[in-house]
């Protein structure tokens, strides 16, 4: 007999007084029910294992999320710190821009002073300090003053304005520096030419003494007591005092005459001549190239003289002129 056709009878006895209930199930139904129960058990086990894996995965994800959150917080903290450092650096840069503007103004003022020293017109060389002040919209703070007040965080708009102002100031300074280079080159050329001109211009005193005993022009002759034309400047001193060349030039005369005594005539390259008379001793010789401040003789009272002095003449294109306006500096000056 086929096992699928077998019948199994099940009795259910509720209690002693209750009626017995019977029901029959085929072997196939029992096998199906067992298989179903087995499937359910397997499903439950699988669900349990899956749930446990999910719980572990969720825990792992939570740990990873917590770690990632910590990393992000550190990154954000570092970013904020970096932003604060950049803001501080930018503020420092803005202050350096102001300092550069001040230094640029100092350079212009120095250029102006340099031109004044050599007699050039300084009017076009410098600007007012306000022209170089950094226009940052903020009040200038005195370096020796105090600061105070509540410190507030910088907002983006303020920082953007500071960035724009600093960028504009740096561009302005860059343009000014770019324009300054050829300007300083021209100043250098002008100063070199002026120094060259000064070197051959008799601007220094020819003696250490500054005691003028007789000026240029009409005077009473000390010998005849009549009005005569005095073609130079007499500077009193002590016999043997050094006499200096008043400018660069070439000695064209170095001899003795009855009127000038021992005398030296120096030719300069700009049509000027200087004449030194009544020396006690001549040191320079004809043909010597002398520099401004070189000793060319010693003071004395030779020739037509009433006492130790230097008779000093300045001759421009053959005409005697007053030497006094030329006497602007000591022999130690250029």
Give the gist of this structure.
Keywords: Coiled coil, Hydrolase, Membrane, Transmembrane, Transmembrane helix. It holds the Pfam family Peptidase_M23. The chain has 334 residues and is α+β, with helices and mostly antiparallel strands.
Q: Overview of this structure, please?
A:
The protein is α+β, with helices and mostly antiparallel strands and about 325 residues long. Helix content is about 40%, strand content about 20%. It has three helices and 14 strands. Strands 3, 6, 7, 8, 9, 10, 11, 12, 13 and 14 form a ten-stranded antiparallel beta sheet that branches. A two-stranded antiparallel ribbon has the order 1-2. Strand 8 (about 250-255) and strand 9 (about 260-265) form a beta hairpin. The longest helix is centred in the first third of the chain and has 91 residues, at about 25-115.
- Total number of strands: 14
Distance between the termini: 143 Å
Structural class, judged by helices and strands?
A: alpha+beta
Number of domains: 3
β-strand amount? 15-25%
State the helix count.
Answer: 3
The succession of helices and strands, N to C, reads EEHHHEEEEEEEEEEEE
Report the radius of gyration as a whole number of Å: 54 Å
**Helix content class:** 40-55%
Would you identify the CATH H-level superfamily of the largest domain? Answer: Glucose Permease (Domain IIA)
The biggest sheet, with number of strands, parallel, antiparallel or mixed sense and barrel status, is: 10 strands, antiparallel
Task: Report the average pLDDT across residues.
Answer: 79
Global outline: rod-shaped
CATH class of the largest domain: Mainly Beta
CATH topology of the largest domain: Glucose Permease (Domain IIA)
* Architecture (CATH level 2) name of the largest domain: Distorted Sandwich
Low-confidence stretches: 126-144
């Amino acid at each position: 007999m086929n096992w699928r056709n077998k019948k199994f009878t099940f009795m259910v006895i509720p209690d002693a007084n209750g009626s017995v209930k019977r029901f029959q199930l085929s072997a196939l139904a029992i096998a199906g029910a067992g298989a179903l129960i087995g499937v359910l058990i397997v499903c439950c086990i699988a669900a349990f294992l899956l749930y446990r894996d999910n719980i572990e995965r969720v825990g792992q994800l939570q740990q990873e999320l917590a770690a990632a959150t910590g990393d992000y917080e550190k990154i954000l903290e570092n970013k904020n710190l970096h932003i604060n450092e950049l803001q501080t650096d930018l503020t420092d840069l803005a202050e350096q821009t102001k300092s550069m503007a001040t230094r640029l103004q100092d350079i212009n003022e120095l250029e102006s002073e340099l031109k004044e020293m050599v007699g050039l017109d300084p009017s076009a060389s410098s600007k007012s300090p306000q022209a170089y002040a950094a226009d940052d919209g903020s009040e200038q703070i005195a370096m020796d003053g105090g600061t105070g007040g509540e410190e507030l965080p910088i907002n983006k708009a303020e920082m953007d304005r500071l960035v724009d102002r600093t960028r504009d100031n740096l561009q302005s300074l860059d343009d000014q520096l770019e324009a300054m280079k050829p300007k300083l080159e021209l100043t250098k050329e002008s100063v070199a030419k002026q120094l060259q001109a000064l070197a051959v211009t008799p601007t220094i005193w020819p003696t250490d003494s500054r005691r003028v005993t007789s000026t240029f022009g009409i005077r009473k002759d000390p010998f005849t007591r009549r009005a005569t034309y005095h073609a130079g400047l007499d500077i009193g001193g002590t016999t043997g005092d050094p006499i200096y060349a008043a400018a660069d030039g070439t000695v064209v005369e170095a001899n003795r005459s009855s009127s000038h005594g021992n005398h030296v005539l120096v030719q300069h390259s700009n049509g000027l001549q200087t004449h030194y008379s009544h020396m006690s001793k001549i040191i320079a010789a004809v043909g010597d190239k002398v520099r401004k401040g070189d000793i060319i003789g010693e003071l004395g009272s030779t020739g037509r003289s009433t006492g130790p002095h230097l008779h000093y003449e300045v001759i421009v294109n053959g005409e005697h002129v007053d030497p006094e306006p030329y006497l602007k500096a000591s022999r130690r000056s250029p």
